[in-house]
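for ur thesis appendix - Imidazolonepropionase. copy paste whatever u need, i formatted it the way the template wanted (i think)
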Amino acid sequence: MEGGYHRSIGLFYFCGMEILIQNIKGLVQVREKSPRWVAGVDMAHLPVLENAFLHLKDGKIENYGAMEEMPLINADEIINASGRFVFPSFVDSHTHLVFAASREEEFVYKIKGMSYQEIAAKGGGILNSAKKLQQTTEDELLERAMIRAEEIIGFGTGAVEIKSGYGLTTKDEIKMLRVAKRLEENTPLRVKTTFLGAHAIPKEYSDRNDYIKLIKEEMIPAVAAEGLADYIDAFCEKGFFTPEETEDIMEAGKKYGMRPKIHANQLHISGGVQVGVKTGALSVDHLESMGEEEITALQNTDVMPTLLPGAAFFLNMTYPPARKMIEAGLPVALATDYNPGSAPCGKMPFMLSLACIKMKMTPEEAINSGTINSAYAIELQNDYGSITKGKVANVFITSEIPSYAYMPYAFGANLIDATILNGEIIRSNFFSIPE
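the 3d part is after this line
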């Protein structure tokens, strides 16, 4: 069989393989027919097949079942997963993975008691990242983002959404989105892209309406002309974009085929949830600040509430009321919000831990949120997020662990022994990698 380094990110892989994983202690998230999502009480159900096999062929899930029913399979590679669990790869449906530099100086400001808004007023926050990104070339951005791509793959992620929003000029927003597209070309990740020009108002705009006009009349058409964005987003929050402005921008994006995904209710009850429902958003994300009205507004809609507990953890804020939403019959998705300012962490297993520890979600609910529901949040539920025949062969194999609940329980441990994306073994402790 052939092997090598996966494109240019330095991950060793074996390609063109037919893979059989056998003696699996627990095959997690097995669904004969994949739902678009799971919601309410159904989120507590996580189908797991014990003592199982999984057959991967031509980059797809070919077959699975109980070991005693396994047919004769002449695979190129046979992996003994005794004592281990196999999960579908995580889908991280909200990230800002492309950025120029870290912002640990603001981390120190937070420790000393400054608020998010105070740091922004000091020239920090989103505008700080924008200044750094505008001074960074596209190739430099790609080189730095590739390191983060390798990182999240190691954490079990196989599909990811990446936003712009640190450019805040037409040229630099396009630069970010080009980098996101190049990441998909140069890594095994499936990437969805979101235009977030409405992330903040640059300081040089004394009239905010001039910048909003730029977004609608120049940025959106330019992004659409290159086919760079699947979605459009806005930071609907006090001090950033009002509900009326957000709705206006979302409708402008929809005219160019970009479906809304809205930053909503992170710092305050901002009206972002209602705008998401009104504009037919695919998801509303953050939701740290939620009242009964917002939960009611989401019921009987197609909008996925997406929770980003890494941001609440890092900013020491109130966590989204996951239990109330689930008890109201809603689905919820989990994502990292990986970004340099408020959530510098792309580790989906840690999001599971925060969901369980801080939001009182069960392991089953958390795993459903980070796989099948987060796949829906970027329209990938037909190909990712569960162990279903015909879906893309994106899975990871754990180390020897006692149960799948050990994944969120052991929040500091590295529990992934092998990663398989698109039917290729990207990294593995089962093989000796040639020098």
